[in-house]
Design brief:
Layout (H helix, E strand, L loop, with lengths): L15 H10 L12 E2 L8 E2 L2 E4 L18 H4 L5 E4 L1 H8 L9 H18 L6 E12 L2 E3 L3 H10 L2 E3 L1 E2 L2 E2 L2 E5 L8 H23 L3 E5 L4 H10 L5 E5 L22 E5 L9 E6 L19 E6 L12 H21 L5 E5 L4 H9 L8 E8 L2 E4 L10
Helix pairs in contact: 6-7, 7-9, 8-9
Length: 395
């Protein structure tokens, strides 16, 4: 089904202009697997094109033409809209009779349009904004965690961003956080590593004249909040969230298809205004069980953040608009704490929240103006405190 080759039935030839346009729209990469289709390994004077222009709807309507049963004319079958650039392996796979049910006309068209739109976005250098990537690797609850280059690229392109490159290399800042939370001094060591990462980030920002940072972080909540607290508030920061089912698009924000989730905060106990410590319970990805709260917190005043109309659950924050709504509710909670308990110097933060919101929690604490944060980590069946996030130390 490529441009050339023997055929037993009459078909419309693909014109040179059409053939070239299909290559250009795909940027020389396979629409399905993104393999680069110019081979320079054994061709020193010039690269050899190894891609194949394939038909979605078959070139003819005969029984042997894959996906050939269609009302399209022969001319329409040979037009750009029905053609896609593939590597040899993908071309062979989609035309295999055993795969007909998998590679449908609709599925192939969607992948073609998705790929061509991505090419259009990522090559639009006039509008793409440069960003410095900040990510982490490590272990979370015994499982290795990392974000791949492909996942970062997909998320950035989807957001209209392009990773900052210096001397031909991406300059991502990656923080290694793989210590066991139950080990001595784990939290202090993790915060030290975050501080080192922030120093590298600041160096990259100065060298590249960059004022935008993209954060791909997935680790324990106390480290995420601390990371957020260390981000310079003069920068534009975009937080990406992780979807376990997303694969290559695991860090791409979903597009809104409904009204954003509404969040609010309520004062759960009316303790004296003179209280110096307050508990902030964040019921977003679930609900805090009273039995898991440390005993030394049970007599303190409590303020709760939760969705207004929905039940707290994992995956509640699906879109960036949802994240913004939850972050605004957190800012409102901090304001209520200042108003209701003006003497509060410590805010104990406890509860299940997504990684993206945890970073925003740290970002929105006003340094030198609001209470220090002690963030709690759920280990087994009880919450345990990490070291306080203050104005005077970087831990």
């Amino acid at each position: 089904m490529g441009k050339s080759g023997p055929s037993e039935v009459r078909r419309k030839d693909i014109g040179d202009t059409t053939y070239r346009n299909v290559w250009v729209r795909a940027a020389g990469r396979c629409v399905l697997c993104s393999t680069y289709l110019l081979d320079t390994r054994f061709h020193y004077r010039s690269a050899k094109a190894v891609g194949e222009v394939a038909h979605n709807v078959g070139a003819t309507d005969t029984a042997g033409s894959p996906r050939g049963k269609s009302a399209l004319t022969l001319e329409q079958r040979a037009a750009e809209d029905n053609l896609l650039l593939l590597c040899h392996s993908c071309h062979k796979a989609i035309d295999d009779p055993a795969n007909v049910e998998m590679f449908t006309q609709e599925w192939l068209l969607a992948r073609k349009l998705e790929h061509e739109l991505r090419v259009h976005r990522v090559t639009n250098f006039a509008t793409l904004q440069k960003t410095l990537v900040l990510a982490n690797r490590g272990v979370l609850r015994g499982a290795p965690i990392s974000v791949t280059d492909r996942q970062i690229t997909e998320a950035l392109v989807d957001a209209g961003l392009v990773a900052y490159v210096r001397d031909g290399w991406r300059t991502d800042v990656v923080i290694e956080l793989d210590d066991d939370p139950s080990a001595p001094y784990t939290w202090e060591r993790g915060c030290y590593l975050i501080d080192q990462g922030i120093e590298k980030l600041e160096t990259g920002i100065k060298q590249g004249g960059i004022d935008h940072v993209s954060v791909f972080a997935l680790t324990y909540i106390p480290w995420l909040v601390y990371l957020g607290s260390r981000l310079d508030d003069t920068l534009t920061v975009k937080i990406f969230d992780h979807d376990r089912k997303g694969r290559d698009r695991a860090w791409c924000w979903k597009q809104p298809t409904r009204s954003p989730v509404s969040f609010g905060s309520i004062i759960a106990t009316l303790e004296p205004e003179a209280a110096e410590e307050v508990v902030a319970v964040l019921n977003v990805s679930g609900t805090v069980k009273t039995s898991r709260v440390p005993r030394n917190l049970t007599d303190l005043p409590v303020i709760e953040l939760r969705p207004d109309e929905e039940t707290p659950r994992a995956g509640l924050i699906e879109t960036e608009v949802d994240l913004d709504a939850a972050a605004e509710a957190w800012i409102g909670l901090l304001a209520k704490v200042e108003e209701r308990w003006p003497n509060a110097r410590i805010l104990h933060v406890i509860g299940p929240i997504p990684a993206s919101l945890a970073v925003r929690v740290g970002m929105h604490r006003m340094r030198s103006a609001q209470a220090e944060l002690i963030v709690y980590h759920l280990d087994g069946d009880a919450y345990h405190p990490a070291p306080a996030i203050t104005d005077t130390n970087n831990l």
